[in-house]
Hints:
Layout: H1 3-18, H2 30-40, E1 48-50, H3 57-61, E2 67-69, E3 87-90, H4 97-107, E4 111-117, H5 123-131, E5 134-145, H6 149-153, E6 158-169, E7 177-185
Parallel strand pairs: 1-2, 1-3, 3-4, 5-7
Antiparallel strand pairs: 4-6, 5-6
Amino acid sequence: RSIRQDMAHFGTMNKRKKENKPNDEWITPLALVEKQISMVGGRPEDCWFDPFKNSGRYYNAFPTDNKVYTEILEGKDFFDYEGEVDIMCSNPPYSLWKEIYEKTLALNPRIISFVMAEAALTRARTVMMESHGYKITKINKFHVKRPNKEQYERGYRMWMTSVVVQWEKTTEEVAMDYTWDTKEYLFEEKSDDYHV
């Protein structure tokens, strides 16, 4: 396909999202999960929360047994969760950002670490988080490879730029740690290794 055809495909994907039929099932590469978790740090007593478990890559990589998850495929809906958590770490579905932010803020974790498209880190979202006492403490920028193997083999390398953003609830002034990861990550479109 030509670049023009690729752009037409992108338009089709946007139309699909507007029709409320997004494909939100993208499995985060384990190397990126591990990097994101290492950015968080945390305290030994912290309860870690994976709100969208799917294959369990985040949940299984958390550095503690003090962890909880929700997974719609198991009948545990994130939007119904009412427990207390200290750290929320995930790659949430992009089509539900507004609802996810609202629920996340209601849960009131001390640290929130999300993967998102760089363009999704808008001023309005940052202001909303700040109005609830959260400040960005870390950003790790990285490239996502094209998920279509044929396109990748034809030389299209970068699909989009994404970021791991970490917010911490604090009243203190903080210096933000900003890093650029030169590695490209390939996200899987569906979970072939889903397990309970």
